[in-house]
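The material for today's practical consists of a large collection of protein records. There is nothing in a record beyond a sequence line and a structure line. Backbone structure tokens are a discrete shorthand for how the chain folds in space. Nothing more is needed to start thinking about how sequence determines fold. As an example, a complete record with its sequence and its structure tokens follows.
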Amino acid sequence: MSTTRVEPIFEPIDHKSSVFEQLGGEPGVRALVDRFYDLMDIEPDLAALRAAHGPSLDNAREKLFWFLCGYFGGPDHYVERFGHPRLRARHLPFAIGAAERDQWVVCMGRAMADLGIAAPLADRLLHSFYGTADWMRNREG
């Protein structure tokens, strides 16, 4: 018996421009990151995720902005400052389980919805973010 891998089916998105451009460049990425961390700070169901970030979100806010600019096809601010992202290695000091993974993805989904990012693009990004967040898990639960 053979197994077939089923991939999600997405609505078409604009492939003529980068995600960075579709989000509005640096101002759009900044707005997404700011909304993401603002939600993390105020939503009770994101408490475990917020607790993992320590008392201030300022450093995380900047690093995510720098990273996402390059990840989305814009300037490689993060790589210019720190070199290769090494995401898993850089997140090993933090306890990341299924709850933190899920809260991160939910928070980003809410941020994209709040900013009115088109559903086809948001769906693709959430699929990608989920895979990355799942790969960063370093504890059970």
